[in-house]
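User: structure tokens for Nuclear body protein SP140-like protein, please.
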Amino acid sequence: KSQLPVTCGYKEGVLYLKKYYDKQKCIFSEEQWFKPTEFERFGMKEKNKKWRTSILCSGIPLQKLIEDGFLPAATFKKSRIITTGIQNKKNFIFCLVNICVFVVESHEKIEDNQDDDDIDMSVFEGPVLPVTCGSDSGILHKYRFSTGRCGRCIRTENFWLTPEDFIRLSKPDGTWKKDIVSHGMPLGKLITKRALEPHAVNCDCDICQEPDQNLLNDDMCFVCNSDGELVCCDDCPRAFHSRCHLPAPGADSPGQWSCTFCVMKNVESSSQRIQQDVLSSPVSQYTLHCQYLLLHLLRESMTDLCVNVPGYSENICGPMMLGRVKMNLENNDYQTVREFITAIEYVFHHCTANRDNDFTRMTFRLKELFETVFKPL
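Assistant: Done. Predicted tokens:
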């Protein structure tokens, strides 16, 4: 087929494959031509920041068609103004400077007194690397890494940063290849050993061409740690499935959206009220607090799923039982805060009663988290 019917949100259109291959505006909808990124905005799905998953063909995300080889992974660059004469010369010189900088960086000699034979390179084989620079720390995600100035690949507590941005936090005059280290080894050394691979100078992937478009938020749901169609918080790097977040965000809500974790930062503590008063209060007065607490517990429980445990039914799994609490909270089944807290405590009791080591460890972690989060509320 030379055309594919596509949808994004409530908008329908037709994707013309020839224009798609040529990286032109290829989607025709309501008498207008769009690039995929523009059609995503037109369909009010720009919060997802991933047109490949936002745009569907017969209910199937374009990402799936790309992964299965039915559609190439085209990159759509931002519109550029065609210039001539002096401007072209300036652009040419700018490109030469960039190439020279990259070549110089690629041949930098990094002082390293470690004996390479004593280094266990297996610790660098995973998809992520713990990194530090001075007193700052983060997690480097290899699939996001491009170069020092391109590719927000380092996740700190509050931001996604490029290596050059990360080094500015502690060592503004430092060199990212030398001063950012993982397991004691500088990133430059990891590049020479091919444990970390930079992109080519002329790379035209999404990360290199549109470095700030889609990399400000996580690629996995903060609660269940899986991918899919995510809603991105505008105040922090977190992203969520609509079904995982509390409360569920509106599918096409306009403007800025903040997750419950960020909203709670601006809520005054109720510590002046005694605990009994809070417990006897209607849930409606503390809905945000209950949602905040439950999101913490759901995320923690997902780190150690208790499925396929011999001799036990799946319905005793902590995440599943907390999922029921979430559903009841959404349905307004709890009248007072005490009823909500009692339901959570029942989950703890039920898991501990099974006397299974995995359940017990998870339950103790959840209890500690419960005390840490609930008491300040």
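User: Anything notable?

Assistant: The longest helix spans residues 86-106.
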